[in-house]
Protein backbone atom coordinates (compact mmCIF):
# COMPACT_ATOMS: atom_id res chain seq x y z
CA UNK A 1 0.00 0.00 0.00
CA UNK A 2 1.59 3.27 -1.13
CA UNK A 3 -1.16 5.63 -0.04
CA UNK A 4 -1.14 6.91 3.52
CA UNK A 5 -4.92 6.68 3.52
CA UNK A 6 -7.24 3.88 2.52
CA UNK A 7 -9.62 4.23 -0.40
CA UNK A 8 -12.32 3.45 2.18
CA UNK A 9 -11.69 6.97 3.48
CA UNK A 10 -13.22 8.30 0.25
CA UNK A 11 -16.67 6.88 0.92
CA UNK A 12 -17.97 9.84 2.90
CA UNK A 13 -16.86 12.52 0.44
CA UNK A 14 -19.63 14.48 -1.24
CA UNK A 15 -20.37 13.19 -4.72
CA UNK A 16 -20.41 15.37 -7.80
CA UNK A 17 -22.82 15.56 -10.71
CA UNK A 18 -25.89 13.57 -11.59
CA UNK A 19 -25.49 9.83 -12.13
CA UNK A 20 -26.14 8.55 -15.66
CA UNK A 21 -28.44 5.61 -15.06
CA UNK A 22 -28.56 4.47 -18.67
CA UNK A 23 -24.79 3.86 -18.64
CA UNK A 24 -24.37 2.64 -15.08
CA UNK A 25 -26.91 -0.19 -14.93
CA UNK A 26 -25.22 -3.55 -14.55
CA UNK A 27 -24.59 -5.35 -17.83
CA UNK A 28 -25.10 -9.11 -17.83
CA UNK A 29 -23.29 -11.63 -20.03
CA UNK A 30 -19.87 -11.93 -21.61
CA UNK A 31 -17.83 -9.39 -23.60
CA UNK A 32 -19.89 -9.87 -26.77
CA UNK A 33 -23.17 -9.31 -24.95
CA UNK A 34 -21.71 -6.26 -23.23
CA UNK A 35 -20.62 -4.86 -26.57
CA UNK A 36 -24.13 -5.14 -28.01
CA UNK A 37 -25.63 -3.63 -24.87
CA UNK A 38 -23.19 -0.70 -24.87
CA UNK A 39 -24.11 0.22 -28.44
CA UNK A 40 -27.72 0.60 -27.35
CA UNK A 41 -26.86 2.42 -24.14
CA UNK A 42 -24.56 4.79 -25.99
CA UNK A 43 -27.33 5.76 -28.39
CA UNK A 44 -29.73 6.26 -25.48
CA UNK A 45 -27.23 8.41 -23.60
CA UNK A 46 -26.54 10.42 -26.73
CA UNK A 47 -30.22 11.41 -26.95
CA UNK A 48 -30.39 12.30 -23.25
CA UNK A 49 -27.11 14.19 -23.23
CA UNK A 50 -28.02 16.39 -26.19
CA UNK A 51 -30.88 17.75 -24.09
CA UNK A 52 -28.69 18.90 -21.19
CA UNK A 53 -27.56 22.04 -23.02
CA UNK A 54 -24.09 23.28 -23.88
CA UNK A 55 -21.27 24.76 -21.77
CA UNK A 56 -20.34 28.41 -22.10
CA UNK A 57 -16.93 27.79 -23.59
CA UNK A 58 -14.38 25.12 -24.49
CA UNK A 59 -10.72 25.95 -25.17
CA UNK A 60 -7.91 23.64 -26.26
CA UNK A 61 -4.34 24.15 -25.03
CA UNK A 62 -1.32 22.27 -26.43
CA UNK A 63 1.09 21.09 -23.73
CA UNK A 64 3.75 18.79 -25.20
CA UNK A 65 4.54 16.65 -28.25
CA UNK A 66 6.57 13.55 -27.45
CA UNK A 67 7.54 10.13 -28.88
CA UNK A 68 5.45 7.05 -28.20
CA UNK A 69 5.96 3.48 -29.44
CA UNK A 70 4.07 2.75 -32.67
CA UNK A 71 3.29 -0.77 -31.45
CA UNK A 72 1.38 0.75 -28.50
CA UNK A 73 -0.41 3.63 -30.21
CA UNK A 74 -1.58 1.67 -33.28
CA UNK A 75 -1.93 -1.70 -31.63
CA UNK A 76 -1.02 -4.50 -34.09
CA UNK A 77 -2.45 -2.60 -37.07
CA UNK A 78 0.37 -0.33 -38.27
CA UNK A 79 2.80 -1.30 -41.02
CA UNK A 80 4.90 1.83 -40.53
CA UNK A 81 8.66 1.29 -40.45
CA UNK A 82 9.08 3.87 -37.67
CA UNK A 83 9.36 2.31 -34.20
CA UNK A 84 8.04 5.53 -32.70
CA UNK A 85 5.28 7.94 -33.58
CA UNK A 86 4.55 11.32 -32.01
CA UNK A 87 1.57 12.33 -29.89
CA UNK A 88 0.53 15.75 -28.66
CA UNK A 89 -0.89 16.01 -25.15
CA UNK A 90 -3.52 18.73 -24.85
CA UNK A 91 -5.56 20.25 -22.06
CA UNK A 92 -9.22 21.17 -22.47
CA UNK A 93 -10.63 24.04 -20.42
CA UNK A 94 -14.42 23.92 -20.03
CA UNK A 95 -16.57 26.65 -18.50
CA UNK A 96 -20.27 26.60 -17.64
CA UNK A 97 -22.76 27.96 -15.12
CA UNK A 98 -24.64 25.72 -12.73
CA UNK A 99 -28.43 25.96 -12.55
CA UNK A 100 -28.04 28.45 -9.68
CA UNK A 101 -25.77 30.65 -11.82
CA UNK A 102 -22.51 29.63 -10.14
CA UNK A 103 -19.62 29.66 -12.64
CA UNK A 104 -17.62 26.46 -13.00
CA UNK A 105 -14.23 25.68 -14.54
CA UNK A 106 -13.02 22.16 -15.39
CA UNK A 107 -9.53 21.25 -16.57
CA UNK A 108 -9.30 18.03 -18.57
CA UNK A 109 -5.78 16.59 -18.82
CA UNK A 110 -3.83 19.41 -17.10
CA UNK A 111 -0.60 17.41 -17.06
CA UNK A 112 2.36 18.66 -15.06
CA UNK A 113 4.74 17.94 -17.94
CA UNK A 114 7.92 18.50 -15.95
CA UNK A 115 7.03 16.00 -13.23
CA UNK A 116 5.45 13.60 -15.71
CA UNK A 117 8.93 12.89 -17.11
CA UNK A 118 9.62 10.84 -13.97
CA UNK A 119 7.17 8.15 -15.07
CA UNK A 120 9.28 4.95 -15.17
CA UNK A 121 8.73 4.20 -18.86
CA UNK A 122 9.53 7.71 -20.07
CA UNK A 123 12.42 8.15 -17.61
CA UNK A 124 14.05 4.99 -18.94
CA UNK A 125 13.41 6.04 -22.54
CA UNK A 126 15.08 9.39 -21.85
CA UNK A 127 18.03 7.67 -20.18
CA UNK A 128 18.66 5.57 -23.28
CA UNK A 129 18.14 8.37 -25.82
CA UNK A 130 20.86 10.91 -26.68
CA UNK A 131 19.98 14.45 -25.61
CA UNK A 132 20.13 15.92 -29.18
CA UNK A 133 17.51 13.40 -30.32
CA UNK A 134 15.27 14.16 -27.36
CA UNK A 135 15.52 17.84 -28.20
CA UNK A 136 14.30 17.16 -31.72
CA UNK A 137 11.48 14.80 -30.73
CA UNK A 138 10.07 16.51 -27.62
CA UNK A 139 8.40 19.89 -28.12
CA UNK A 140 6.93 21.77 -25.17
CA UNK A 141 4.17 24.14 -26.30
CA UNK A 142 3.07 25.79 -23.06
CA UNK A 143 2.42 25.13 -19.39
CA UNK A 144 -0.94 24.68 -17.72
CA UNK A 145 -0.56 27.94 -15.79
CA UNK A 146 0.56 29.93 -18.83
CA UNK A 147 -2.47 28.74 -20.78
CA UNK A 148 -4.83 29.63 -17.93
CA UNK A 149 -3.29 33.08 -17.63
CA UNK A 150 -3.85 33.60 -21.36
CA UNK A 151 -7.49 32.61 -20.86
CA UNK A 152 -7.73 34.98 -17.86
CA UNK A 153 -8.57 32.17 -15.45
CA UNK A 154 -7.00 32.34 -12.00
CA UNK A 155 -6.01 29.08 -10.27
CA UNK A 156 -8.53 29.61 -7.48
CA UNK A 157 -11.34 29.64 -10.06
CA UNK A 158 -10.73 26.03 -11.06
CA UNK A 159 -13.37 23.69 -9.62
CA UNK A 160 -12.55 20.33 -11.17
CA UNK A 161 -9.48 18.50 -12.45
CA UNK A 162 -10.15 15.43 -14.59
CA UNK A 163 -7.83 12.95 -16.30
CA UNK A 164 -9.01 10.05 -18.43
CA UNK A 165 -6.60 8.02 -16.27
CA UNK A 166 -3.63 8.72 -14.05
CA UNK A 167 -0.82 7.29 -16.20
CA UNK A 168 2.23 9.59 -15.90
CA UNK A 169 0.36 12.06 -13.70
CA UNK A 170 1.98 13.67 -10.65
CA UNK A 171 -0.61 15.88 -8.90
CA UNK A 172 1.44 17.14 -5.96
CA UNK A 173 1.93 20.68 -7.24
CA UNK A 174 -1.71 20.95 -8.30
CA UNK A 175 -3.41 19.81 -5.05
CA UNK A 176 -0.62 20.08 -2.47
CA UNK A 177 0.69 17.51 0.00
CA UNK A 178 0.45 16.80 3.72
CA UNK A 179 4.21 16.38 4.16
CA UNK A 180 7.55 17.67 2.91
CA UNK A 181 8.57 16.22 -0.47
CA UNK A 182 12.35 15.65 -0.65
CA UNK A 183 12.48 15.49 -4.45
CA UNK A 184 10.64 18.81 -4.75
CA UNK A 185 12.53 20.45 -1.91
CA UNK A 186 9.30 21.70 -0.35
CA UNK A 187 5.88 20.85 0.93
CA UNK A 188 3.97 22.28 -2.03
CA UNK A 189 0.90 24.37 -1.36
CA UNK A 190 -2.00 23.58 -3.74
CA UNK A 191 -1.83 25.54 -6.97
CA UNK A 192 -5.58 24.92 -7.39
CA UNK A 193 -6.84 25.32 -3.82
CA UNK A 194 -10.54 24.91 -4.66
CA UNK A 195 -10.27 22.08 -7.17
CA UNK A 196 -11.40 18.50 -6.71
CA UNK A 197 -9.85 15.68 -8.72
CA UNK A 198 -12.69 13.65 -10.22
CA UNK A 199 -11.46 10.08 -10.49
CA UNK A 200 -13.00 6.65 -10.70
CA UNK A 201 -12.70 4.87 -7.36
CA UNK A 202 -11.52 1.79 -9.28
CA UNK A 203 -8.37 3.56 -10.38
CA UNK A 204 -7.42 4.73 -6.90
CA UNK A 205 -7.96 1.19 -5.66
CA UNK A 206 -5.75 -0.21 -8.43
CA UNK A 207 -3.00 2.30 -7.67
CA UNK A 208 -2.76 1.07 -4.10
CA UNK A 209 -1.48 -2.32 -5.34
CA UNK A 210 -0.23 -2.12 -8.92
CA UNK A 211 0.08 -5.10 -11.24
CA UNK A 212 3.40 -5.50 -13.13
CA UNK A 213 1.62 -4.55 -16.37
CA UNK A 214 0.77 -1.19 -14.79
CA UNK A 215 3.98 -0.22 -13.01
CA UNK A 216 5.87 1.35 -15.96
CA UNK A 217 3.13 3.94 -16.41
CA UNK A 218 2.23 5.18 -12.92
CA UNK A 219 3.99 7.21 -10.24
CA UNK A 220 2.14 5.83 -7.20
CA UNK A 221 4.70 7.14 -4.69
CA UNK A 222 3.70 10.71 -5.59
CA UNK A 223 0.18 10.07 -4.24
CA UNK A 224 1.39 8.99 -0.80
CA UNK A 225 1.00 12.41 0.82
CA UNK A 226 -1.82 13.91 -1.24
CA UNK A 227 -4.68 14.96 1.07
CA UNK A 228 -7.65 12.63 0.81
CA UNK A 229 -10.09 15.51 0.39
CA UNK A 230 -8.39 16.51 -2.88
CA UNK A 231 -10.32 13.69 -4.57
CA UNK A 232 -13.96 13.51 -5.58
CA UNK A 233 -14.31 9.80 -6.39
CA UNK A 234 -17.09 8.54 -8.62
CA UNK A 235 -18.33 5.04 -9.38
CA UNK A 236 -19.61 5.34 -12.91
CA UNK A 237 -20.76 8.17 -15.15
CA UNK A 238 -21.97 11.64 -14.17
CA UNK A 239 -23.32 14.75 -15.87
CA UNK A 240 -21.54 17.70 -14.28
CA UNK A 241 -23.28 20.57 -16.04
CA UNK A 242 -24.94 21.59 -19.30
CA UNK A 243 -23.23 19.59 -22.02
CA UNK A 244 -20.46 18.30 -19.73
CA UNK A 245 -20.20 14.68 -18.56
CA UNK A 246 -17.62 12.18 -17.36
CA UNK A 247 -18.38 8.65 -18.54
CA UNK A 248 -16.80 5.47 -17.27
CA UNK A 249 -14.88 3.69 -20.05
CA UNK A 250 -12.86 0.87 -18.45
CA UNK A 251 -10.22 -1.10 -20.28
CA UNK A 252 -7.17 1.02 -21.03
CA UNK A 253 -6.98 1.09 -17.24
CA UNK A 254 -9.48 -0.42 -14.83
CA UNK A 255 -10.79 3.02 -13.84
CA UNK A 256 -10.61 4.74 -17.21
CA UNK A 257 -13.05 7.58 -17.91
CA UNK A 258 -13.83 9.87 -20.85
CA UNK A 259 -15.03 13.43 -21.17
CA UNK A 260 -18.22 14.04 -23.17
CA UNK A 261 -19.07 17.53 -24.44
CA UNK A 262 -22.12 18.86 -26.24
CA UNK A 263 -21.06 21.84 -28.36
CA UNK A 264 -22.14 24.03 -31.25
CA UNK A 265 -20.92 21.33 -33.65
CA UNK A 266 -22.56 18.46 -31.78
CA UNK A 267 -21.30 15.88 -29.32
CA UNK A 268 -17.63 15.13 -28.74
CA UNK A 269 -15.84 12.57 -26.59
CA UNK A 270 -12.22 12.83 -25.48
CA UNK A 271 -9.93 10.19 -24.00
CA UNK A 272 -6.71 8.32 -24.74
CA UNK A 273 -8.47 5.10 -25.70
CA UNK A 274 -7.25 5.74 -29.25
CA UNK A 275 -4.65 8.21 -30.53
CA UNK A 276 -6.33 9.30 -33.77
CA UNK A 277 -9.91 9.87 -34.90
CA UNK A 278 -9.33 7.45 -37.78
CA UNK A 279 -8.76 4.66 -35.25
CA UNK A 280 -12.55 4.70 -34.76
CA UNK A 281 -13.16 4.39 -38.51
CA UNK A 282 -10.00 2.59 -39.71
CA UNK A 283 -11.68 1.67 -42.99
CA UNK A 284 -11.07 5.30 -44.02
CA UNK A 285 -7.49 5.48 -42.75
CA UNK A 286 -4.55 6.12 -45.03
CA UNK A 287 -2.06 5.05 -42.36
CA UNK A 288 -0.12 2.01 -43.61
CA UNK A 289 -1.85 -1.18 -42.55
CA UNK A 290 -4.86 0.12 -40.63
CA UNK A 291 -7.64 -0.41 -43.18
CA UNK A 292 -6.34 -3.83 -44.22
CA UNK A 293 -5.84 -4.96 -40.63
CA UNK A 294 -9.33 -3.83 -39.66
CA UNK A 295 -10.89 -5.71 -42.57
CA UNK A 296 -8.78 -8.85 -42.08
CA UNK A 297 -9.46 -9.13 -38.38
CA UNK A 298 -13.00 -7.73 -38.56
CA UNK A 299 -12.26 -5.21 -35.82
CA UNK A 300 -13.87 -1.80 -36.11
CA UNK A 301 -11.45 0.13 -33.88
CA UNK A 302 -7.69 0.32 -33.32
CA UNK A 303 -6.77 0.51 -29.64
CA UNK A 304 -4.13 2.55 -27.88
CA UNK A 305 -2.72 -0.41 -26.01
CA UNK A 306 0.33 0.13 -23.85
CA UNK A 307 -0.96 -1.69 -20.77
CA UNK A 308 -3.63 -4.07 -22.13
CA UNK A 309 -5.26 -4.23 -18.71
CA UNK A 310 -8.64 -5.49 -19.96
CA UNK A 311 -8.50 -5.41 -23.74
CA UNK A 312 -12.06 -6.52 -24.53
CA UNK A 313 -13.42 -3.90 -22.15
CA UNK A 314 -11.31 -1.21 -23.81
CA UNK A 315 -12.62 -2.25 -27.23
CA UNK A 316 -16.18 -2.08 -25.90
CA UNK A 317 -15.55 1.31 -24.31
CA UNK A 318 -14.29 2.70 -27.63
CA UNK A 319 -17.44 1.45 -29.34
CA UNK A 320 -19.44 3.19 -26.60
CA UNK A 321 -17.56 6.42 -27.35
CA UNK A 322 -18.17 5.86 -31.04
CA UNK A 323 -21.91 5.48 -30.47
CA UNK A 324 -22.13 8.79 -28.57
CA UNK A 325 -20.28 11.24 -30.82
CA UNK A 326 -21.35 13.12 -33.94
CA UNK A 327 -19.58 13.05 -37.29
CA UNK A 328 -16.97 15.67 -38.06
CA UNK A 329 -18.29 18.68 -39.93
CA UNK A 330 -14.91 18.90 -41.69
CA UNK A 331 -14.86 15.34 -43.04
CA UNK A 332 -17.86 13.11 -42.39
CA UNK A 333 -15.77 9.93 -42.71
CA UNK A 334 -14.40 10.71 -39.27
CA UNK A 335 -16.01 11.22 -35.88
CA UNK A 336 -15.87 13.96 -33.29
CA UNK A 337 -13.61 11.91 -31.08
CA UNK A 338 -10.78 14.08 -29.76
CA UNK A 339 -7.77 12.07 -28.55
CA UNK A 340 -6.34 13.57 -25.38
CA UNK A 341 -3.01 12.50 -26.88
CA UNK A 342 -3.40 12.98 -30.64
CA UNK A 343 -1.20 11.42 -33.33
CA UNK A 344 0.98 14.19 -34.74
CA UNK A 345 3.05 14.08 -37.94
CA UNK A 346 6.81 14.23 -37.45
CA UNK A 347 9.48 13.93 -40.14
CA UNK A 348 11.38 11.47 -37.97
CA UNK A 349 8.47 8.99 -38.01
CA UNK A 350 7.74 7.82 -41.59
CA UNK A 351 4.39 6.13 -42.10
CA UNK A 352 2.71 7.74 -39.10
CA UNK A 353 1.19 10.90 -40.60
CA UNK A 354 -2.53 10.86 -39.71
CA UNK A 355 -5.13 10.96 -42.46
CA UNK A 356 -7.19 13.41 -40.43
CA UNK A 357 -6.62 15.46 -37.27
CA UNK A 358 -8.88 17.59 -35.12
CA UNK A 359 -6.11 19.63 -33.42
CA UNK A 360 -8.64 21.32 -31.12
CA UNK A 361 -12.18 21.58 -29.80
CA UNK A 362 -13.35 25.16 -29.88
CA UNK A 363 -16.77 26.23 -28.62
CA UNK A 364 -18.39 29.39 -27.33
CA UNK A 365 -22.10 29.76 -26.71
UniProtKB/TrEMBL annotation:
Q: Which cofactor does it need?
A: Zn(2+)
* InterPro entries membership: MBL_superfamily_lactonases, RibonucZ/Hydroxyglut_hydro
Example GO molecular function:
metal ion binding
Keywords associated with the record: Hydrolase, Metal-binding, Zinc
| Protein family per UniProt | Belongs to the metallo-beta-lactamase superfamily.
Q: Which PANTHER family does the annotation name?
A: METALLO-HYDROLASE RV2300C-RELATED, QUORUM-QUENCHING LACTONASE YTNP-RELATED-RELATED
Entry protein name? Metallo-beta-lactamase superfamily protein
Q: Which organism is it from?
A: Rhodococcus koreensis
Amino acid sequence: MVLQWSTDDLVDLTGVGDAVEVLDRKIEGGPGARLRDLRTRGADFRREFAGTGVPLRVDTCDLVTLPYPTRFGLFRASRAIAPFLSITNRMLVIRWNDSDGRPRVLLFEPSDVKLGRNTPYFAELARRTPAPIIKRMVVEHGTVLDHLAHLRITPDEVDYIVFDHLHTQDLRRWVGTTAYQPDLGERPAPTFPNAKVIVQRDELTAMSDLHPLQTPWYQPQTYRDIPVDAFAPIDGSVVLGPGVAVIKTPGHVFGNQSLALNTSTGIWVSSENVIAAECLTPEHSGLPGLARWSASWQQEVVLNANTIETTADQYNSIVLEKSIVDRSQTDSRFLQFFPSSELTPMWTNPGTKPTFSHHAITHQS
